[in-house]
Write a structure and sequence with these properties.
By secondary structure, the chain is α/β, with parallel strands linked by helices. The protein has 13 helices and nine strands. The chain folds into two domains: about 5-50 and about 110-155 and about 215-395, Aminopeptidase; about 60-100 and about 160-215, no CATH class. The strands form two sheets. It has a seven-stranded mixed β-sheet, with helices on both faces.
Length: about 400
């Protein structure tokens, strides 16, 4: 049975500063390990090293270089120094881009330690023996992964303001490029006029770049929404499915707690090596990341039939669980464990809340912002739907 008090206890237990690579994150790992062992399960630990460059330094350098390149485009190429600087800046940006394609392999400038915790719960052997139609091979081919991340992060600006800064930088940059195109190639006779007009978006872009530079990372957020809420949900599901009589007949269940998600999704990038052999068409990912008072669901666009069926069940739920998201929408600047696996061709659904961005990554990310009953109803809906879906597979077989 699900227990709202247990959900609340887990939410409160994991609501403390735990920046990736710090003692706080290691404390969260030890707490999670103890809870898994208390359920008489055997957890596995995957230790890894990661660089802070991709998650904390690379974006700032990229934004600053981006402004420099836009500014050099804006100027006239009257001297050799301007195209030379433009070429140098562009080459540096391209090099950084290629270095960041596999940030988990990066070893500069500083390496920190983190860990993933995971436990695999196999399909119910007792039920498979009682069911003559059960096919043993399905336990190998079909997997469901419940995922959340253990670490938290504080910043000078919350996610809401960071997203606004990024949007401002992008849109002003587009305007600058349009102005440059017009003044240099279309209305050259009015180039002076467009020089003057272009000062406004150029100044806006510079201000946005400076604000992004000032958005330093700290360890001041308790991370109740992001992501103690997800931890509480995954543990509640684990508590239910740890009972052999409650397990599914056709799916192995993985419960994954990643580290260093807030520093470039380093945990899932390393954990992918553990699951890349799985049949992606027969695997379902449920990623819990930042749930407060609203239930936003994010299935991917070209998802599998399995996920489409489960999502339809969510829409028709009887738990008063309102699904607010557009299934095809990906939040601007999205960078989560679930999104990383989506790019690796896994299928699934992400759970979150777009209305809590003003609190995330700030000192206001506290337990009182999370609706405990919403977490319980979400877990109940997931369990109910998976039981029905598991039975449907039986009938199809």
């Amino acid at each position: 049975m699900l227990d709202e008090n247990r959900i609340k206890e887990n939410l409160e237990t994991f609501s403390f500063p735990r920046l990736s690579g710090t003692e706080g994150e290691r404390k969260a790992l030890k707490l999670a390990l103890k809870r898994v062992e208390d359920l008489n399960l055997k957890p596995m630990i995957q230790d890894f090293m990661f660089s802070t460059f991709f998650g904390r330094i690379y974006p700032k350098v990229a934004f600053l270089l981006g402004f420099v390149i836009l500014f050099l485009f804006y100027l006239n190429f009257t001297t050799i120094i301007i195209p030379l600087l433009l070429m140098i800046s562009s080459v540096i940006l391209v090099i950084l881009f290629f270095l960041a394609t596999k940030p988990e392999s990066m070893r500069l400038p500083k390496l920190l330690n983190s860990s993933n915790l995971y436990v695999k719960v196999v399909s119910n052997p007792k039920k498979s023996q009682l069911d003559p139609t059960f096919k043993e091979t399905t336990t190998v081919e079909k997997n469901i992964l419940f995922m959340c991340h253990l670490d938290s992060k504080g910043q000078r600006f919350s996610i809401l303001y960071r997203v606004r800064i990024i949007r401002t930088w992008v849109f002003s940059g587009v305007i600058i490029l349009i102005v440059v195109l017009i003044k240099n190639y279309i209305l050259t006779l009015f180039s002076l006029f467009f020089y003057i007009i272009g000062i406004i978006p150029l100044a806006v872009n510079l201000i946005a770049a400076i604000l992004f530079l000032l958005n330093t990372t700290n360890d001041s957020s308790k991370g109740a929404i992001d992501n103690a809420s997800g931890i509480a949900c995954v543990f509640e599901l684990l508590s239910y499915f740890s009972n052999p009589d409650s397990r599914l007949k056709h799916f192995n269940l993985w419960f994954v707690f990643t580290g260093a998600e807030e520093c470039g999704t380093m945990g899932i990038r390393n954990f992918y090596q553990k699951i890349k052999h799985l049949n992606k068409e027969e695997s379902i990912i449920f990623n819990f990341d930042s749930i407060a008072e609203s239930s936003y669901f994010f299935p991917d666009n070209n998802t599998s039939d399995q996920v489409q069926s489960i999502f339809s069940m969510f829409v028709k739920n009887n738990k008063s669980l309102v699904i607010k998201s557009n299934p095809k929408k990906i939040p601007f600047g999205s960078h989560t464990d679930g999104y990383y696996l989506k790019k690796k061709n896994f299928h699934g659904i992400g759970f979150g809340d777009l209305e809590c961005y003003e609190h995330i990554h700030s000192v206001h990310d506290t337990v009182d912002k999370v609706d405990i009953s919403l977490l319980r109803r979400l877990c109940e809906t997931i369990i109910d739907n998976l039981i029905v879906f598991d039975d449907q597979i039986k009938s199809k077989d």
